[in-house]
Amino acid sequence: AQESRGLGDVYKRQIDMKEQMTKIKSILNERLVKYGFKKRGYDYFVRMADEDIIQNIGFGIATYGEKHVRYLNPSIGVIYKDVNKLELHLRNLEKTKYPEYVGLMVGSALGYLMPENSYREWRFSDNEDVTKEANSMADAIINYGFPYLDLLSDRTELIYGLEIGKYSQGDGYLLPIFHYLNGNNKRALECIDEFIKKLSASSYLEDYEIDILKKLSEENGEAHIVNNNGLKSYLEFADNFRQMIGLHESGISMSE
Question: Is 154 left (phi over 0), alpha (psi -120 to 50) or beta?
Fold first, then answer.
């Protein structure tokens, strides 16, 4: 009977924690909907900056072994639909089970946007009122996350930020695509070459080896000889990108 009561208590606390999470999401929804955000699947809050730019707020959830506690870490970011679609195509990643708003093309954990500039989580337990802490998290999202979203939603600013290393995510993939879509094929190809050198340096390859690998990937697609998986994957992307540029400059669309 004592064991049964123990299991019953555990089950009740699981239910309590689930109810707490529902309450947290409800508070966030109430605060964020006023700014045009809608709650979507995978616990994302999503807003369209325009028809092409998705602004999203996602949440990392951890317990650190505390069964009846949840630590929430908000992440703030954007997805440019035109860039994302082309990147997935060039990387042969088009088949995905996730909606287009899931993930961050460029973004940051919220704590790094706050004055303390460090990793930040909000702690919630099954036996405490979550209202104050949930509103504290919403305040931080509004005060520090929203200005960041506005910055990322400026295409010119984002490209400049990627160029100077201000935003590091996916720069080897995103920068060439941004420049290509802006009609700057020359800079797009320069970005490809620069990133190949950067990846190759981490593979301890000499310049002449890099040149050989680049030539192979350009001429006959034999990028599979590279042992470094990151470099191999990028050379495949680079090969697809160069083919696309060639087709574009010869007036042939990729669909043809």
Answer: beta
Dig out the tokens for 9 from the structure.
């208590």
Q: 138: which 2 tokens?
A: 């919403």
How does strand 45-48 pair with strand 69-80? unpaired
DSSP helix/strand/coil, 75: strand
Neighbour count for residue 84 (Cβ, 10 Å): 19
Burial code (b: 16+ CB inside 10 Å, e: under 16) for 129-152 equals ebeebbeebbebbeebbbebbeeb
For 92-128, write each residue's pLDDT tens digit.
887 777 889 998 899 999 999 999 999 999 999 999 9
Lookup: tokens for 161: 């930020």
Verdict on whether the full-model pTM lies above 0.90: no
Rg (CA), the chain: 23
- As a whole-number percent, the residues of the chain with pLDDT over 90 amount to 67
Model pLDDT for residues 155-212, shown as the tens digit of each residue: 999 999 999 999 877 779 999 999 999 999 999 999 999 999 888 876 555 555 556 5
Cβ distance 111 to 73 under 8 Å? yes
